[in-house]
Amino acid sequence: VILNNDKNMMILGTEDRMLKFFDIRENSLIKSFIGHTDSISNVQMGLNEFELITSSHDGKIRSWDIRNYN
Question: Alpha-carbon distance 14 to 7, whole Å?
Answer without folding.
Answer: 20
